[in-house]
Amino acid sequence: MAWSYRKRIKIIPGVHLNLGKNGVSTTIGVRGASITFGTGGTYINTGIPGTGIYNRQKISGNRNSFTPDNIDNSPISCQPVEDRYNIFSADIQEITSQGMQRIKDAIIAAQEQRKELVKDQLQIRSSLKKSQFKLMLGYIFLYGFIKKTVSENHKTDIDAQRNAIEQLTGQINDCCVEVNIDFDPEIKEKYETVIRSFMKLSASHKIWDVTATRSEDERITRSAVSTAITRKNARLGRKTLVDIRSEYEPLWIENANGGDLYIYPNFIIMYSSRQQFAVIGFDELDLRDGAVRFVETGTVPSDAQIVDRTWAKVNKNGSPDKRFKNNYQIPVVKYGEIRLATKTGVNEEYQFSNFEATNEFACSFKEYQKTITSLDVIS
Question: pTM of the full predicted structure?
């Protein structure tokens, strides 16, 4: 084992990310022991605090990035279906990427520390109430020198307790994982393009979380629909997690049947609760996008494109089936679709009424993802 000398070991309370032309790395840990990881590998750093002596050892290699496919554009329809393929992610406790486990551990450690601080604060608040009650009794029952001495003692206790509560409040607020980003201008511009396109996508008139699909036999149903789906309204936006502090507010995707997604500059949090969450690396994520032809039986969103029309009941050649009375036309619209998946178990699918915004976000995200996952680790 080769030991070397370094002037200073940077000690951090949480996570620091550094992105640049020469590489990207993430280092987390405590004094004397930390982990640095990125696409070039994962390293464990150990040392003796105060001496400048440290050791750095590689413990894992590179990861392969995703390879996107096209999405099937066969006509689909929204129907409650049974005998269906449910679309949902695996148990959230199993989804964390191997290289992201240390970030999850840091978040859990911050949560535990916050619990202890809150517990201490509650005890001091209880003592403060008792001191205030004793001071009130002193004003009522004590007189002269005794009253003055006792009152001053109680006031001193109260001041000290209030000061302690104020200090603990600051410590509780600071008890989180800090994510510090140092972008090169060109990478920063790519990430800001992701943000702009995401906000444009969030303004789509309709956003759905697709939760189930089922293949349809068109000969039996006498319709143009090849796939029936179940979907629920969803929202996109920007939302902060209390356990993580960053100069960049994460991109938030609501999940109808599992943990919501929070996209940070170099990792993603799938979050159900403070006890149920996962951390996903960008190199693990497979984002696929495309257009879908949707037989819209409901109201057509104003930002959607009507690309065709069909009949409620159709013949094999697409003409209306005249055996059905009151047969009527139905618009076929073009929606955008995004699918998110990882080998660890993420499996989510979304539809957007604005196809152009969907395509714009997907392209900007994959361009940014490709850039940062192709960089080497910074020492």
Answer: 0.70
